[in-house]
Structures are given as C-alpha cells and as structure tokens.
Amino acid sequence: MRIRFSICLALFATPALGWTVTHERDRMTDHTLTWASSSSGAATLLVGCLNGSVQPRLTFRERIGYGRPGVSFRFDDGPVVPRIAMVSDDGTTLYVWTGDYADAMAKLRKGRRLRVQLSQTFYDFDLSAGEPLPPINCR
After folding, report:
1. Rg (CA), the chain
2. 79 touches 126 (CB < 8 A)
3. I need a surface site. Which of 62, 63, 75, 112 has the fewest CB within 10 A?
C-alpha cells in the first residue's frame, strides 16, 4: 500500500515548471489576447480572459467528469480551502474559483506555490518559476 501511494505521489505531485505566456490576436476584434499557463501532471492552470474578466481555471487533456466535484486547494503555507467546483459541459475544464477571481488572481501573482487536490489526485504548481504572471487586461 505504501509503495503504491509513493508511486502515485511521484507521478502526480511533480511540481510544474512555472508560467508559460502566450500572446495571440483575436481575429474578430484584432485585440491581442494574453494567456498564462502552468502544468502539473495532466492538469494545466490557465489564466486568461473569460466572460470579460481575468479568470483562473484548470484544464485537462481528457474528460475528468461532470457536475460539481469537491476540491481542496492551498496557496503557499496558507490554509487548505475546500470548495465545490464546476466542470465544463465537455468535462475538460474545472472552475475552482467561481466568483472570487480577484482574490485568486492576487494570490496567483504573489504566490510561490499552488496545490490542488481533486478526488485522490494531487497537482502541484510552482508559481515562482519561469516567466512571472503577466498583467492580463480584458477589453
């Protein structure tokens, strides 16, 4: 049992390598869109504009489920925060921070580490490595 746990921890708790920043031009508005992402295992922490505001969310290569799963997250050495998240219709995006984007964004900008647990899977994002999280403006 301990060996299985150690293997799972090694596979799923590998810290991400920091932010990757992408710029693209919106073909409809000609505005430049900025996206920042950081990956850990099968999850990507994606920060960008959605519905007119800067929002963080987790995306996955494969469907993770549906509905409103329970998750826990922790920034740096702060408290563990349990949360009911939302899953997108296609099952590949997890919206952990629904409604409190400003607080999450402030912690993402200043934080060094974000840990997220979804069911038995653990994701560890190193927010201090790579490029810094850039300012993202939604027009």
Report:
1. 15
2. no
3. 62
Alpha carbon distance 139, 64 (integer Å): 31
| Long-range CB contacts (within 8 A, 24+) of 132-135 | 132/19, 133/19, 133/36, 133/47, 133/108, 133/109, 134/19, 134/21, 134/34, 134/36, 135/34
pLDDT tens string 13-45: 444 456 888 888 878 888 777 888 999 999 999
Q: Which tokens hold the place of 14?
A: 């590998």
pLDDT (tens digit, 9 = 90+) per residue, 56-79?
999 999 999 888 999 999 999 999
pTM: predicted TM-score of the whole model, two decimal places: 0.80
Write the DSSP symbol of residue 79: -
Q: What is the largest CA-CA distance in the chain?
A: 55
What tokens were used for 31? 């505005």
Higher pLDDT, 106 or 132: 106
